[in-house]
Each structure stands twice: as structure tokens, then as C-alpha cells.
């Protein structure tokens, strides 16, 4: 020991015995601990920060401490006490020798305070030597809880995946079946067109008139395309059909009731039919009309196939976006796209509910674990749908709040009572009947948002309005640099 080295102050075995933590130790154990620990005075400020490496256990001798947890970039006080003998820090250092340990909260002193300090290594040696059975029991309990959590967490994710897969299969089946039906009908229409074309071109219809019919055919297709997205009132469409039926019957066109709806849907009217009559004459009118009907019907069927295939492609794209297949786990993502893909995947569950989307275009893309955020949206939306019980409004909103992006998911369910609200993020806590919920959905969501993304997850609730707010930093690296307490 050099001349300038100051010997740390020790506590005698009798002084240690006055602390409730050590009152049952033997004289020999107290003597060992007296030599192993030392007294440290902290006059002001932080003793240790949340997330720092847990190197010591602190036992309060005098003064007052406050424990704080980080939430949305701010320290929130969770406890304040001056009780002699209370402890914090690396008190569980004896457990899991290979685990990375960090302080779970920030400890500050509110006035000059003294602590009896035990290093983490000393704590581990002491516990494993003096209380090996207790250590094994505690280790078994904690490891058992961890394995249970992991197993049920995997099951929760598999159940959610199964539910989403069933919904996706149902959603894919509708456009796929529509495309198959349209293709079968299209085959019939093309066959009909071939026969009518043969009748029109059997040598009695000159080339000029045939060119006029082709021009009318192109015009009919163009009109159909313009009217494709128009929402024509049913009464107006019915009047058009009736007018066309009268005209067709006056010109001896058979089964006019079958032809008129097709012509009317394309926006064709009596004036246009007069042009057809002028082009081909009365003799070939019926053949020309049916040929044009097949043309319109064929074009409509091709549009239906195109829409169906596009819908399938959109669903597959949404599934790929949702699962983040072939993408890096950590990447820069647009939260709006993640939310949209989740809503597509959950569209089967959202049937019967009013969906309100308010996406702020000014929210920038952020670095995140995309697939895991999709799991957060899924868990919260699933709970919201379950709470509303068949009818209600689901509101998804994004906005920017300074250095954070905020996603709000709200429902119009009965609300969460205050006594339950305090526990909803606890693992294994659920209000669902036995067998219907594991109580891990919100716990997993909380760990993804808070632990993995250094954000915040909170809830506001009253009868008829419950809103979950997911707060994510726009620049996680800068946030970590500015506040090392965020590091896990």
C-alpha cells in the first residue's frame, strides 16, 4: 500500500448485525463480510445508472435514495426511501454466472448518504458458499419462469401466425376463385366470338362494313374502360337497360334481356346502337350485336382476372412485408407500410369493424426491427378487436412528436379498469378465459418496444375509448449516445 492510499472504512461485525439483511449471519460470516465490504459516502447525484454494468450491491446506512426508471427519454421515480438497510444494485449477482448483468434502475441520493458496498463478485461468492441450496432453488425458479415464458411466447407467436395464415388463405381464396370462374367464362365468350365473326365474314359483308364494326368494337372497349370505375346508381342503370331492351326488340334481336345489361354496363346507348345498325344493316344486326356483346363481356372478364391477380399479388406482397422475408432484421422502415401490411394480414378479423387510418406523411422512416414491430401491431390490434366484441371503430394513427415517432392504436371497446391497467404488461397476466390467452402478447410487445427499440409503450383508457401509444425514437443511436442509461 502506498503512502497516499486511503484505507476504506469498514463496518464491524456488530454494526453489520444491525442491518436486517445480515442479522441472521454467524459471527464468522459477519467477520468475513466485514473484511470484504466497505463504506462509501455519496454526497450528491447519481450512484449508478440504469443499463450500466452491475458491479456492486449498495446497502443504505444513512441518508435517502430515489430509484428511477427511464420512460420516453425521462426518468420516472418508482421509489424513494430513507429506511436503513434497504439495498439495490447487483444483489442478484450470484445468479447466472454467464449472464450479462446490468442495473435495472437508476439510483440517486437526495441528500448526503452512506452505503455499505459489496462487489458483485463478493456477493456471488458469499451466496454460493453460504446458501447453495437457496441459490439452486432461486436459480431453478427463475430459469423455470424464463423457459415457461419462452415456450409460451413461441406458442403465442405460432397461434398468431396460424390465425393470420388462416385469414390470408381465406383472402387469397376469394380472388383466386374469381379468376378461375372468369377464365372459364372467358373461354366460352371467345368461342362465341369466333362463331359470330365467321357469320359476319362469310363473304356477304363487305370489307368496309367489317372495318366499321371493328372501329365500333374498339369504341365499345374504350367506353367500357371509362365506365369501369364509375359507380352508376342502380335505378339509372336499370333505365338504360330497359331503353336498350325496347330498341333491340324493335329490331328483332333475340334474347334482348340477356344482351342489354352487358351493353348498358359499358355505357352504350340507343344512339350508339343506331351506328351499329347503319354499319351492318338489319340482316347482320343480331350477329354484330352479339359479337360486340362478347367483346364487352370478354374485356370485363379480363378486367376481373386482372383485378383478381392484382389482389393476389397485393396479398402476397403484404405477407412478405409483414414477415420481412429476405430482408435484414434491422433496417430503415416506413411505419405506415408496416401498419398497412399488418392490416391486410388481419383483414379477415377486421370484417364488421369500421377502420380509420390517419397516417402523417411527415413521419420519417426509422431504423427498427420491422418483423417484430409487426408483431406489436398484431398483438395490440388483436386485443382491440377482442375487446370490441364484433362491432366498433378501430383507429390507427401515426404522428411525429419531436425526436420520436408515435403510433396510436385505439378502439371503442368498454375500456380497461384502473386495477387491470396497472398489470396488463405483466407476463402471464390475462383477462381472457383459461385456454384463450397466455398473457404474453402485451408483455412481448412491451419488451420489443422498450427493451429492443428503446421506446415506450403506454395505454390510456376510459369507457368507449382505449388507446395504446407506441413511442419509437427517430434516431436510436443518437439517443443512446446522449443517454447511456438506455443501454441494456
TrEMBL record:
<protein>
    <recommendedName>
        <fullName>histidine kinase</fullName>
        <ecNumber>2.7.13.3</ecNumber>
    </recommendedName>
</protein>
<dbReference type="InterPro" id="IPR000595">
    <property type="entry name" value="cNMP-bd_dom"/>
</dbReference>
<keyword id="KW-0808">Transferase</keyword>
<dbReference type="InterPro" id="IPR003594">
    <property type="entry name" value="HATPase_dom"/>
</dbReference>
<feature type="domain" description="Cyclic nucleotide-binding">
    <location>
        <begin position="21"/>
        <end position="127"/>
    </location>
</feature>
<dbReference type="InterPro" id="IPR004358">
    <property type="entry name" value="Sig_transdc_His_kin-like_C"/>
</dbReference>
<dbReference type="InterPro" id="IPR036890">
    <property type="entry name" value="HATPase_C_sf"/>
</dbReference>
<dbReference type="InterPro" id="IPR005467">
    <property type="entry name" value="His_kinase_dom"/>
</dbReference>
<feature type="domain" description="Histidine kinase">
    <location>
        <begin position="299"/>
        <end position="476"/>
    </location>
</feature>
<keyword id="KW-0418">Kinase</keyword>
<dbReference type="Pfam" id="PF02518">
    <property type="entry name" value="HATPase_c"/>
</dbReference>
<dbReference type="InterPro" id="IPR018490">
    <property type="entry name" value="cNMP-bd_dom_sf"/>
</dbReference>
<dbReference type="GO" id="GO:0000160">
    <property type="term" value="P:phosphorelay signal transduction system"/>
</dbReference>
<dbReference type="Pfam" id="PF00027">
    <property type="entry name" value="cNMP_binding"/>
</dbReference>
<keyword id="KW-0902">Two-component regulatory system</keyword>
<dbReference type="GO" id="GO:0004673">
    <property type="term" value="F:protein histidine kinase activity"/>
</dbReference>
<dbReference type="InterPro" id="IPR014710">
    <property type="entry name" value="RmlC-like_jellyroll"/>
</dbReference>
